[in-house]
Queuine tRNA-ribosyltransferase
Amino acid sequence: MTDKFTFTLLAKDGMARRGEVSMPRGTIRTPAFMPVGTAGTVKAMYPGQVRELGADIILGNTYHLMLRPGAERVAGLGGLHVFANWPHPILTDSGGFQVMSLAQLRKMDEKGVTFQSHVDGRRYELTPERSIEIQGLLDSDIQMQLDECVRLPASETEIERAMQLSLRWAERSKAAFGDQPGKAIFGIVQGGDVPRLRVESAAALAAMDFKGYSVGGLAVGEPQAVMLEMLAITTPVLPELKPRYLMGVGTPDDIIESVARGIDMFDCVMPTRAGRHGLAFTRFGKVNLKNARHADDHRPLDEASDCPASRDYSRAYLHHLFKANETLGAMLLTWNNLAYYQSLMAGIRAAIDESRFDDFRLATKDGWARGDIPAL
């Protein structure tokens, strides 16, 4: 345990990195996957389950929590760790992405963005300073600068405008954050799918000396190959001895390929959202439990898994739960999916430690490509 925020790089294998982020509320083993607790809960999971699966940190969403129940209310109830019964590290995003994608009647200028809530129609203003204030009220351990995320495809002119605005907001966010011992603020690299803008954004943020760096504005409509190209040119510009976080990504394949390009931290709603809709992630690839072929299949999703949801329930039963629209189906598949993601991260970390990451990556992808074995 430490009273400071530190990042230690423990091993490298090519561009893949193994490290540890240490802070007062705990240590984050990297590469790390952060389950998304949008409104103060990882959907369909108990906090203790999430921890037992190996999660060192979860994510909370500034936009949703500011609207309901309200940041000031959460602060009055002891902060998000107490409120959500999660005493371990929490990262909060800035709220900017949700303002752009969910809010109604947005108006943006140099100061910030005003918007109408999708919940009750009330009008709010979110500036870099207010975003940091809200994240402080939530008492999160890692906070994000406010930025503007542009959906791709977009014109180079529009991408550059948003990137430059995000850099100015980065300076204001960092100033608002000030000096908070044991906590960190991350800058967010923007620049869309334009290489020179990605490099310019990363270099400018590095000069601002953030405690960590996020890569934003990817997985927003571009092909995976474009995302990976942007990562390959961005990560070398970022300081080696600070953590790198790819926001909102992604599939197991996205994660393993991004680790190969120097990324340390990930978050995504995919494993929880997929679980609620009948899709399981396994070492055999994806399994759609709504498919009729599972109706008489007595096998579990993965008999070798340590996760009870993966090991102790038949596919036939899981199929039945979704056909009958039973809540337990979503709970079990979410549990399975988060277990698989954390198992994948543990495997990645071990492979980097042992200088066999490329072999692990190929073997993992081969397992997905072979696919699930049909029932006899």
